[in-house]
Specification:
The structure holds 2 protein chains of 2 kinds.
Chain A: H1 7-11, E1 25-27, H2 34-43, H3 48-62, E2 86-88, H4 103-111, H5 116-121, E3 125-131, E4 134-138, H6 141-147, E5 150-153, H7 154-160, H8 162-168, H9 179-187, E6 190-196, E7 205-211, E8 221-227, E9 232-240, E10 248-250, E11 253-258, E12 263-271, E13 283-293, E14 299-306, E15 311-314, E16 317-320, E17 326-335, E18 340-349, E19 355-365, E20 369-378, E21 386-396, E22 401-410, E23 416-425, H10 428-435, H11 441-457, H12 462-475
Parallel strand pairs in A: 3-7, 6-8, 7-9, 8-11, 9-12, 10-13, 11-13, 12-14, 13-15, 13-16, 14-17, 15-18, 16-18, 17-19, 18-20, 19-21, 20-22, 21-23
Antiparallel strand pairs in A: 1-2, 3-4, 5-6
Chain B: E1 2-11, E2 14-24, E3 29-33, H1 40-48, E4 54-62, E5 65-66, H2 72-78, E6 80-83, E7 90-94, H3 95-109, H4 117-131, H5 136-139, E8 141-142, H6 148-162, E9 166-170, H7 178-190, E10 197-202, H8 206-210, E11 215-220, E12 223-228, H9 230-239, H10 241-250
Parallel strand pairs in B: 3-10, 3-11, 6-9, 9-10
Antiparallel strand pairs in B: 1-2, 1-4, 4-5, 7-8, 11-12
The chains are: A alpha/beta, B alpha/beta.
Chain lengths: 481, 251
């Protein structure tokens, strides 16, 4: 009798995007103090208000302690051993077109399967590619400008739109919010700024690819998206990182602000290096994402496909203030090898007739550990608020873990809450059934997993749904037993 | 087509098959009958490559190839098909999508071109018509929430589509009422052909009223102890398995 490939083989598939680009980086020595914060600000040529903003955050951060409530375990991070700034060469000479871009860099993108040239030609996708900490390529800016949409790096926004930055930066996630958000506010390197004016439907999907590169450099991205009344924008971030043997800290902050009748659709495909089979070298992903539905009938939709990182700590949330505002969270998270994820969402119902939907699909293989942690809070004035939550976990193999920790707080008796949770396992019977029909074990797993995630993939923009499916299949290669 | 010689197999250290011999020629329908625990399902599983069984002696060749050395999917691609006693549910996996993937993986392995969506749909419509099935099961997830009868019908439908050379029907009649049994048997009969062999594993003679076997074997304690024509099944029905066991022991 022959045997199926061991579960371990499937999970042991090497990280596809694990390579390092040799590029001269100018990197600060490790360590963090007032001087470093000032130096970052100076290095970026920021106005005084920004330097003060950072320093205020830094000083507050010093009084904070690291959160330890998440169901993840990792060695204590020495924040003084991290370098807080790294930029590709020639920062004063930012490229104006692709021709000016370092060919090694372009090659990196090509290896990742995202050639900018092709993307430019592709139907309406603008790319603000973040390489290390400074944006080096921005495309499609012009046609966006014609529509009145601002799509630029946050550093540029600080220079060019200081009033918008002053008004909105930190208004959803203040530096006092949590430890990592505080750190991010002090040292954020770069990120994306999007502003969609009143009544404008953004003519294309906006997309950013992140890539962590310089060795031992924490990445502190900051994203701010403002959608004025009646506007619409769909934004996708996708990331992948080269293989390393030291843990890399990533503490990003994303803030969304949505006015009356406006909508932001925020999709993430995350594929950071998860570490080797022993769990060594993966990315620590401690992210604060929050959207504020300020206007009536505004809407925020978070869709995420998380397959990478050694540790994920992430709860994209919605503050539903506006009457009739809508929050959605669709998530697929995969943990395999020794990956750990504590992820979920928060739906805070403040206004009347607010609605939220949560669909969370967790897949755990090998020794993967996964926790869904979600809060649904219905405030006193949120008459007629409704929430539907569905949390499904799929286990592959016998050594993985899945937990569901829903927090439900209802302070208004007219609220309507639904919560469903299931846990299932890809069984040997299912695999044998598929194989007896001529399918390989890998095909079978990929088919079952994709079927399990269908509801979430349906929410992704079409072209990314295809990518996400592929990514999922690649991630789970060798995960059967 | 299929030659099984002195096959012995263990499950968890317990010997279930104890030297089984069987030869099936193209176009033949063989029935394997036997009491509970005689090794009927084990035999079906060992032939199709399920894990958890250890073959300790003997051989099984399919069209000259050593079947036991192959992975389950390789056996399927050679033209072996197992209709499950308990078809497995695959929630979220669309039946049509599943069947198309299965058929194309088999076609690909034979060097045939893969069918596109349009020609595949045409093919399944034809098959549904032959089996008198309605197309509602195409839109559903594989076996998910199917009734017992629907699951068995879906197995026969898969068999019709994958066109195996040798189909093993593992207690396809179990859990079916008389109407469902007839539908399933009609389906099987529609798929009989001079090129296609079948092994019908069953506990009861009832199924053989609808599917006429060429040969009936009686399996007891992991060995075929008696083979004969259709009348053997009737005799069994009348006298019970005890009769043949006693006779087997006397011999």
């Amino acid at each position: 009798m022959t045997s199926a490939p061991a579960v371990d083989d499937i999970v042991r598939s090497e990280y596809e995007h694990g390579f390092t680009t040799e590029i001269a980086s100018e990197t600060f020595p490790p360590g963090l103090d007032d001087g470093v914060v000032r130096a970052i600000s100076r290095r970026k040529g920021e106005p005084e208000f920004m330097t003060e903003w950072r320093l205020k955050a830094y000083r507050h951060w010093l009084t904070m302690t690291e959160p330890n409530w998440a169901a993840v375990a990792y060695p204590k991070i020495d924040f003084q051993s991290i370098s807080y700034f790294s930029a590709p060469k020639r920062p004063e000479d930012m490229p104006k077109s692709l021709d000016e871009i370092d060919p090694v860099l372009l090659e990196t993108y090509q290896k990742l399967g995202i050639p900018l040239e092709e993307q430019k030609a592709l139907a309406g996708i603008a790319v603000d590619a973040v390489f290390d900490s400074v944006s080096v390529a921005t495309t499609f800016r012009k046609s966006l400008a014609e529509a009145g949409v601002i799509f630029c790096s946050i550093s540029e926004a600080v220079h060019d739109y200081p009033d918008l930055i002053k008004q909105y930066l930190g208004s959803v996630v203040p530096h006092t919010d949590n430890y990592y958000a505080g750190l991010n506010a002090a040292v954020f390197s770069d990120g994306t700024f999007v502003y969609v004016p009143k009544g404008v439907r953004c003519p294309m999907e906006l997309s950013t690819y992140f890539r962590i590169n310089a060795r031992n450099t924490g990445q502190f991205e900051r994203t701010l998206i403002v959608a004025e009344a009646g506007s619409y924008v769909s934004y996708l971030e996708g990331c992948t990182a080269p293989q390393r043997d030291e843990n890399q800290l990533h503490a990003a902050v994303v803030e969304l602000i949505v006015m009356e009748d406006a909508e932001i659709k925020y999709s993430t495909v995350q594929n950071w290096y998860p570490g080797d089979a022993q769990g060594k070298g993966g990315i620590y992903n401690f992210v604060t994402k929050r959207g504020d539905c300020r206007g009536a009938r505004s809407k925020i939709s978070w869709t995420q496909v998380e397959t990478g990182s050694a540790i994920t700590w992430k709860y994209p949330s919605c503050l539903l203030r506006g009457e009739g505002s809508v929050g959605e969270f669709y998530s697929v998270a995969v943990t395999k090898g020794r990956q750990q994820a504590d992820t979920g969402t928060k739906m805070i119902h403040i206004g009347k007739d607010t609605r939220s939907t949560i669909v969370s699909k967790g897949i755990s293989a090998n020794q993967g550990r996964q926790t869904y942690r979600g809060l649904v809070r219905i405030g006193q004035r949120a008459d007629g608020a409704r929430n539907h939550t569905q949390c499904d976990s799929l286990l592959i193999g016998d050594c993985c873990t899945a937990n569901t920790v829903p927090y439900i707080e209802v302070r208004n008796p007219s609220a309507n809450m639904e919560h469903e949770a299931t846990t299932s396992k890809i069984s040997d019977d299912q695999l044998f059934y598929c194989r007896s029909r001529g399918l390989t074990a890998e095909d079978a797993v990929s088919m079952i997993v994709n079927g399990f995630c269908k509801e979430v993939f349906n929410e992704l923009p079409m072209e990314f749904a295809v990518e996400a499916q592929k990514l999922l299949s690649i991630s789970l290669e060798g995960a059967v037993g | 087509m299929l030659v099984v010689n002195g096959l012995k197999a263990d499950v968890g250290g317990k010997e279930i098959l104890r030297g089984l011999n069987l030869e099936v020629n193209p176009g033949e329908v063989h029935a394997i009958m036997g009491p509970n625990g005689s090794g009927k399902s084990t035999f079906a599983h060992v032939l199709s490559g399920r894990e958890g069984y250890t073959v300790t002696a003997g051989s099984a060749t399919f069209e000259g190839q050593d079947l036991l050395a192959l992975e389950p999917e390789e056996r399927a691609r050679l033209g072996l098909f197992l209709a499950f006693q308990y078809p497995v549910e695959l929630p979220g996996v669309n039946n049509t999508y599943f069947l198309k993937a299965a058929l194309n993986s088999i076609r690909k392995s034979r060097g045939e071109h893969e069918l596109d969506a349009v020609s595949f749909l045409r093919l399944i419509k034809d098959k549904l018509k032959i089996l008198h099935l309605d197309d509602s099961l195409l839109k559903r997830a594989v076996n998910a929430g199917f009734s017992g009868g629907e699951k068995k019908r879906n197995e026969i439908f898969q068999m019709a589509l994958l066109e195996p050379k040798l189909a093993i029907l593992d207690e396809t009649d179990s859990g079916l009422d008389i109407d469902a049994l007839r539908v399933v048997a009609d389906g099987v009969n529609a798929l009989r052909s001079p090129q296609r062999s079948m092994i019908v594993v069953t506990h009861y003679q009832r199924l053989l009223d609808y599917i006429q076997p060429d040969v009936v074997h009686v399996l007891s304690k992991g060995r075929i102890i008696r083979s004969g024509g259709k009348e053997l099944a009737l005799e069994l029905e009348e006298k019970g398995y005890g009769w043949i066991d006693a006779e087997g022991q006397a011999a």
